[in-house]
Amino acid sequence: MAYELPALPYDYNALEPFIDTETMHLHHDKHHQTYITNVNAALANHPALAAKTVDDLISDLNAVPEDIRGVVRNNGGGHSNHSMFWTIMGPANSSGGHPTGEIAKQITADFGDFDAFKKSFNETTAKQFGSGWGWLVFTGGKLKIITSANQDSPLSQGLYPILGNDVWEHAYYLKYQNKRPDYLAAWWNVVNWAEVNKRFAKAKG
Ligand code: MN
Question: Ligand 1 centroid to 133 CA: how many Å?
Answer without folding.
Answer: 9
